[in-house]
Amino acid sequence: MTQVETESEAAPAAKLTLVTLAMMVVGSMVGAGVFSLPRRFAQETGVAGALIAWAVAGTGMLMLAFVFQRLAVARPDLDAGVYAYAKAGFGEYLGFFSAFGYWASACVGNVTYWVLIMSTIGAIAPALGDGDTVLAVVLSSVGLWAFFLLIRRGVKEAAAINRIVTVAKIIPILVFVVLALFYLKPHVFAENWGGAAYAGSLFDQVKGTMLATVFVFLGVEGASVYSRHAKRREDVGRATVLGFLSVFSVFASVTIVSYGLLPMAEIAELRQPSMAGVLESAVGTWGEVFVSVGLIVSVLGAYLAWTLMAAEVLFVAAKDEDMPRFLARSTRADVPVPALLLTTLLTQLVLVVTLFSDDAFNFALDLTSALTLIPFLLAAAFALKIARRRFGGDLVVAALATVYTAFLLYAAGLKYLLVSFIIYAPATVLFVMARREQGRTPFSPRELVILVVSVAGAVTGIVALALGWISL
């Protein structure tokens, strides 16, 4: 295929209803990451810090959910929300960075799913280690390309599978919470209240969990990304809030009840998925098996949802001429194959990089969160920009969402900011390709400033890695 197919040439796709959109949000948010929460939180904080962290993250992410809800209604002309809002508010180059960063975060996030599933199987197959051995990467690669072929057959077919998997993967999580409450030991819970000595001050504990909370909340914007397929624009915002509220209580519960089964230091040493080890301590081996099977099902749904979402972002950006034209090609089944292929290739690349990481899962998790922060911050800032002329709920929501995402950038730390620059800066090649296809000057004076900052950040990051100032 050498020409971009027009919408009239493609087979008409069924419009997404409120229920379907809400299921897509839940399917995107409830991924394999929730199965890793007990260990990640126990490495950073005790019960008190966890409660504060969830309160901060829940409030901040709820504000972001409201932002996407209100922008979907206020600007119905903007499709693929996260990217489109940045472009409308701050220009094409930052809009491009938002699209690329959101797409790249989805690709890196997909790597965590393969690491977790290989780590799960590694409990009975030591050659897979913690999901970061050569054999684990090879097997993950096979699965990665198998999903590519599945999605290549048609978005509608893949979405149907995702709805089934979303329901199936929630069951073991709810069972875990109920059983953990039943076996909860009050004295263990009390001992974990203030956190272990290694966790540091309460502020440090809360700060240390911020990237983990961002990771598990990724997907709250899922309905916004698929806004062009919505039956009614109002459903986009409603699905966003419904999806968020549905899973927030689940995420917080999984973390908090775990502190009542094992000492914090022991949870911090469990292999991933740590939820399996926590449940095993309470009910025996069958609990570990039960959670492990649930994780495998979760990976299927989460990987499917995020791959679809990532390809959609590239496709819409190319349609808007902010990415090269070849990414705007799609099949008659409405599958953006070039965008899907590029998504799979970047995921494959990051899978290989995990071989050189000290902790493959935490590295991929934190990098995923860090890459998402700029798109989220730009979307929140756009909402603040259009609400600043009037006082009221819209202004308060936008301001809180902006402050929250700015705090997350601080919490991410210099390491992940520099690594993000290393990924962002080379992507400018795609932006230049798109501009040249349109016969336009690659950069305006303002865009040149942004280019210099991104390249300087990337160079600093490469030097820091080479000299050992930071590590993967």
Topology of helices and strands:
Elements: H1 18-29, H2 37-42, H3 47-74, H4 81-90, H5 92-122, H6 134-152, H7 155-182, H8 186-191, H9 202-208, H10 210-217, H11 222-225, H12 233-258, H13 264-268, H14 274-283, H15 285-319, H16 337-353, H17 360-387, H18 393-424, H19 428-437, H20 445-466
Helix pairs in contact: 1-7, 1-12, 1-15, 3-9, 3-10, 3-12, 3-17, 3-18, 4-5, 4-17, 5-6, 5-15, 5-16, 5-17, 6-16, 7-12, 7-15, 10-17, 14-15, 15-16, 17-18, 18-20
Strand content: under 5%
What are the secondary-structure elements, in order, as H or E? HHHHHHHHHHHHHHHHHHHH
Alpha-carbon Rg, integer: 21 Å
Per DSSP, the total helix count is 20
According to DSSP, the number of beta strands is: 0
What ranges have pLDDT less than 50 throughout 5 or more consecutive residues? Answer: 1-13
End-to-end CA span: 40 Å
* Overall morphology: globular
Helix content: over 70%
Largest β-sheet summary = none
How confident is the prediction overall: mean pLDDT?
A: 79
Name the structural class: mainly alpha
